[in-house]
Amino acid sequence: MAHASFFRDARTPRFVPILCAFVVFSLAIEARADEKGWIALFNGKNLDGWTPKIRGHAAGENYGETFRVEDGKLKVSYDQYTKFDEKFGHLFYKTPYSHYRLRIEYRFVGEQCPGGPGWAIRNSGVMIHGQTPETMRKDQDFPVSIEVQFLGGNGRDKRSTANVCTPGTNIVMGGKLITRHCTESTAETYHGDRWVTVEVEVHGHGVIKHIVDGRTVLEYEQPQLDPRDADAKAMIAKRNGEKSLDGGTISLQSESHPIEFRQVELLPIAD
Which residues lie closer than 8 Å to 35 by C-beta, 6 or more apart? Predict the structure, then answer.
């Protein structure tokens, strides 16, 4: 797949110079960083640098203007849908990353699109260590990736945000391989349409932390492809049996409930 060097074992001697060269090149072509080194992946004006991939459609086809920019916010909207019809979508940033800190500010708004699954009410997220949109099957629901799941409360029950889900992947926690699909964080429940800020600290194949309100709410390591998943299995075969993930694409989700983002920024960090 494209950007294959980001999926090699970081212990391979040739990986370090490749990674360093790539990071330097990436920073040279990115939007201008602020004085602290943060890069705005979303420019507040348009979707430049982003590629949509919606189930049933080719990469680059923004069905129903699902992803759009209005009033300085990146919005996931369904006003042009008559029914959701399992059109799960993702908006991919152009540059893959391996070691970084990602900061996203989001809020859920309005009502779920008709036909959306019950579990997807006030449910979205950001995918990291993902495959590229061009390598996804046309009818593929989710990219092989690690999902930092965003959840909103229903006004009554506990429902933590910044959980982790693993489409086509596995992770390690406490020295044990975790093969269940989702693991809850210790974050609070955020009811209503309030803005929430989630940060993700990513160290390649090493430790990944989910941070909410300045507090680490989930931590895991050794992200890897899951051979039980057909798409991941095909990726493993192309990589000569290598399962470990040390980087990949970043993408925002479309899972049937409207959501807005007003900040998506990234700070590259040293290996």
Answer: none
Give which of 116, 119, 124, 143 is closest to 132, Cα–Cα.
143
Domains: count for the chain:
1
Contact 78, 258 (CB under 8 A): yes
Q: Which residue has 């009554």 as its token pair?
A: 156
Distance set, CA 202 to CA 20, 150, 187, 262 (Å): 16, 17, 18, 21
CB 149 within 8 A of CB 165: yes
Token duo for residue 184: 């809850």
Q: Which of 109, 67, 254 is nearest to 196 (CA)?
A: 109
Q: What is the pLDDT of residues 75-107, one digit of tens each?
A: 999 999 999 999 999 999 999 999 999 999 999
pLDDT range class, residue 271, cuts 50, 70, 90: confident
How many residues are given for the chain? 271
Residue matched to tokens 């992947």: 169
Range of the domain at 243: 4-268
What CA–CA distance (Å, rounded) separates 53 from 132? Answer: 10
pLDDT per residue as tens digits for the range 181-209: 999 999 999 999 999 999 999 999 999 99
Which residues are CB-contacts of 82 (< 8 A; sequence separation ≥ 6)? 114
CATH number at residue 184: 2.60.120.560
What pLDDT, on the 0 to 100 scale, is given for residue 268?
97
Q: Count of alpha carbons within 13 Å of 220, Cβ hemisphere only?
A: 26
